Amino acid sequence: MISNNSFSFVINKELPGTLARTGIISTPHGTIKTPAFIVVGTKATVKAMLPEQVKEIGAQAILANAYHLFLRPGPKVIEEAGGLSTFMNWDGPTFTDSGGFQVLSLGIGYKKVLSMESDRYDEDSTIARPSKRMASVTEDGVTFKSHLDGKLHHFTPERSIQIQHELGADIMFAFDECTALQNSYEYQRESLNRTHRWAERCLVEHHTQSRERTNKPYQALFGVIQGAQYKDLRREAAKFLGNLPFDGYGIGGALEKKLLPDIIGWVNEILPKNKPKHLLGISEPDDMFAAIEQGVDTFDCVSPTRTARNGGIYTPTGRINILGAKYRFDYQPVCDTCDCYTCKNYSRAYLHHLFRAKEILASILASIHNERFIVSLVDRMRETIISGDYHDFRDEWLASYYQK
């Protein structure tokens, strides 16, 4: 294991009767107080927001996407600019995912992933027909066509790690295969074993890159737990990867919402307690409460800004559609309990007008609010774990938000 003095994780407070805890992740670009919501900036930008606005809403870190940045502008461009943080003018910690989900989901399925080795197709499913798929999985890696221009590329575990080192994020994720719920148990096991072999290869390449790039800050590498909804596979993954020298762990894969707490609990009971856990692609409030109680430290999701761009506004009493006619003459703040720039200065009627007029400012103001709403919610979770009021806060907050 490469020794480093710039990345660490310290647990500060634990919540009795649960796996929840607060802590601090230290990186070369600053610290992250956990639990924390990590804002997604897929292409080195949080959609419809300036980096300065992302900082103002209280975000501690940004997660970018290795697949998209590989295609455009290219990792060399970002490396020569001084790394991801410098390139996008963000002075805090950064994450990059491996690109594994994107090369598969964009190449094989419309929303979820199915292996090229399977011919299963359902007209009502989210899986592309075999003849239309743009990616294939082998032991070596994934061959895929760019969704931008159709050019053929090949990602191996080694190439993914090389790209992420060039991007220069503080925290990276190992290259993995994200399966779909449609895959059989047999294929899930085959895929899991392959992901574990890829994880070992990622570690070898990570150590090589770290030794060769001594002029660069240390970059932490997280292993990714797969296994779909099978308890034996999830626990097997946690045991195998938990024994490897990763700096932390990501929990990924397709799953049903109702099983999310169980799945996180299965793996976090096994994974090393003293290493941070990141839940990939989750931001629904009830899911975040459940995940924190099972020991998750950080989350990321595109949902706040994506919802905002479609007129969805988070409020303490649930999500509203600001395009609704009833908001035309509603001069209340967008959310009267929120302290963000949007809510301090603009009304629901104004935001309704912007969306109806298809003005760019609509997405900007809505995104500022939604990101602040989720970031501050997770901040409150952290604060109430420390104060001992977590359970009361959770019960009151969820009762209000999901009252309908």
Number of beta strands: 16
Largest sheet: 8 strands, parallel, barrel
Number of helices: 15
Overall outline: globular
Question: TL;DR of this structure?
Answer:
By secondary structure, the chain is α/β, with parallel strands linked by helices. Helix content is 39%, strand content 18%.
What features would you describe in this structure?
By secondary structure, the chain is of the alpha/beta class. The protein folds into 2 domains: 294 residues, Queuine tRNA-ribosyltransferase-like (TIM Barrel); 93 residues, no CATH class. 39% of the residues lie in helices and 18% in strands. It contains 15 helices and 16 strands. The protein has an 8-stranded parallel β-barrel, surrounded by 5 helices. Helix 9 runs parallel beside helix 10. The termini are far apart. About 5% of the residues have low confidence.
